[in-house]
Specification:
about 280 residues; alpha/beta; 5-stranded mixed sheet; 14 helices; 7 strands; disordered N terminus
């Protein structure tokens, strides 16, 4: 159990809204081969990172400075805005719910188009977990099960939103693109996994990208109201674990047979669309 005695109801609601109540032992991904240009770009959003440099088929790699994944852009600094402007960001895709956006509106560079694709897995289970947190007791198995269920629901309940995500990526005028949710780990992590898979990046590399959140996400950047003394207890709740993304992959395999079939049947990303994405997003 986790002792959680020093936070108020507002902070708990923020915490649930941010993280969709996931918990795990913190699995790090301190890969010395990760290029320095991948992350550390924005001081106010440390989980903002470049999806470039990943190996695909035929000796190609994902292009740098075309697609970025991120946590929310609500806390970025004026210097961060200048960096985004210098990167010529044209499109920002926000997966957050209406409530999340209302509480923490984004800061956007001039000239960027904001497109909202709200993904909200619901409040009933989140409220139950919030109550457990408020009483100082949290069954980690329940939280893991909830997080795995949320990832399965990305597959079953939110295909229309992820289809629109790919519709945007199929427009060359959209680039460079940033896509994000609140912590940049769950809704965003699934989107990144789908995109990298569509570009024929192998699953081990896809998972490696997913786990980089554990290296770059800073609790204070998404939970400013939480007392510093509470962060050690909360830190395990701020990570990602292979079982979360694997749950989505298993759901896809059970229903569609493969990620390629899911992409084609539900997201309308067949061979022609994959070829266009590769044209835009792969380099030597």
């Amino acid at each position: 159990m986790i002792q959680f005695m020093s936070t108020n109801k507002h902070s708990l609601n923020l915490f649930i809204s941010l993280l969709m109540a996931g918990t795990t032992l913190f699995t790090s991904c301190n890969d010395p081969a990760v290029p320095s240009q991948r992350a550390g770009i924005l001081e106010g959003a440390p989980n903002f990172r470049d999806l470039g440099g990943y190996p695909s088929a035929n000796g190609l790699h994902t292009a740098w400075r075309k697609v970025f994944r991120s946590q929310a852009l609500a806390q970025i600094s004026d210097s961060d805005l200048v960096r985004l402007k210098e990167s010529d960001i044209r499109t920002v895709i926000d997966f957050r719910s209406d409530d999340e956006v209302r509480k923490a509106p984004s800061r956007l560079p001039g000239g960027a188009t904001l497109i909202r694709l709200p993904i909200d897995v619901g409040r009933s289970d989140s409220l139950q977990i919030m109550q457990l947190l408020a009483t100082g007791a949290l069954d980690s198995a329940q939280s893991v099960a909830y997080m795995q269920t949320a990832n399965r629901r990305f597959v079953t309940d939110f295909a229309p939103e992820y289809r629109q995500f790919f519709d945007i990526l199929l427009q060359p005028e959209s680039y460079p693109v940033v896509f994000h949710c609140t912590a940049g780990k769950d809704r965003t992590g699934f989107a990144a996994a789908l995109l990298l898979s569509a570009l024929d990046v192998d699953w081990d590399t896809v998972m490696g990208d997913y786990l980089l959140t554990n290296q770059y996400l800073k609790p204070s950047s998404v939970l400013p109201q939480i007392p510093e003394s509470a962060l050690p207890a909360l830190r395990p709740l701020l990570g990602v674990h292979p079982s979360y993304l694997d749950a989505a992959r298993e759901e896809i395999a059970e229903r569609y047979g493969s990620i390629d079939q899911y992409l084609q049947q539900e997201l309308h990303i067949g061979p022609a669309e994959k070829a266009r994405l590769k044209e835009y997003l792969l380099d030597e």
